[in-house]
Amino acid sequence: MTAETSSAGTTGKIHCEFCFHRCRLGEGKIGICGVRKNLNGKMITTVYGQVVSAGVDPIEKKPFYHVRPGTSTLSAALPGCNFQCLFCQNHAISQYNESQYALSGSNTPLTSPQKLMELMLGHNLEIMTYTYSDPVVWQDYMLDTAKLVKEKENGLNCMITNGSMTHQSLIGMLDYIDAFNIDVKGNEEFYRKFCKGSFIPVLNNLERISADGRAVVEVTTLVLEGEHTLDEIYWLGSRLRGAGVKVWHLSRFFPAYKMRERQATSETFLNAMLQTASESGIPFIYSGNSQEQLFTATVCPGCGTALIPTHSYGGEAGISVNKYIRDGKCLQCGEHIYGLF
Ligand code: SF4
Predict the structure, then answer these.
(1) Same domain, yes or no: 202 and 186
(2) Atom number of ligand 1 nearest to Cα 31
(3) Which of 86, 133, 141, 274 is the most exposed place for a label (fewest CB within 10 A)?
């Protein structure tokens, strides 16, 4: 199964318009992501329908703390990514190429968008999350599924992404994606050194999503001790605030992929980063991959009430929301609480 998405020019080479790389590909060539290909003058997604992961997760695990807390979602992934982060925890499916697909993927039964949506409904779920690899590179499959999910009562689509889609792609997504969690990794130097990516396209997209106003956006930064500094995190926080970001998760790094020799980020360092992040003016700051109970609560910016004392994975957040938030407002002071509650 393939999906055609753009036409050939007169040179025989064509551009893929899915992400900021805008790969220009000759006949039979594959882009940087390993899953987009010029086949007979058309760009196709070679892994269309090849769902390599589909499972039920608490929405907090994604992480989304401001999207129906206490509920669950079906998390689904196809292979491929347009970055090459040295610390990727999902490299087995993100760093993909066609030869792998030929060896292993050809026996994988294909899952149509309709079938994936039915799987979600079969678990009595209303939220689909596109995640694990980067849905930017299989956005055609994501959008075909998202359209079906949106037709269902209370259906929501969430995307976990590096946020490097083209502006044109983003416009197509905003009609169907209700919430984005965008990984913001560091400054431009960090992106180039560790990810083969770029900061500016991501920041531009954050600004566009915020200005559009339809989708909720949460940002996650994996804090790498010895690389990120307090000054950088403060600088990043002010850039994110300027882009309209209201929710920022800072998570501890654990050794993975090509950075297995590095030490995990300590709780002490993460806490220092969280304190600095909280001075950036972003109203909701949360810790991730941490055993400590700091920066775990959703606190009303108006009156300081702990609306959700902790975001565990057991559904308690949903119970708390019913007690403290009504129609998206704090029951104590009436302050609007950012997100989908
Ligand atoms: S998705 Fe990005 S990396 Fe992949 S072919 Fe298209 S432009 Fe290139």
Answers:
(1) yes
(2) 5
(3) 86
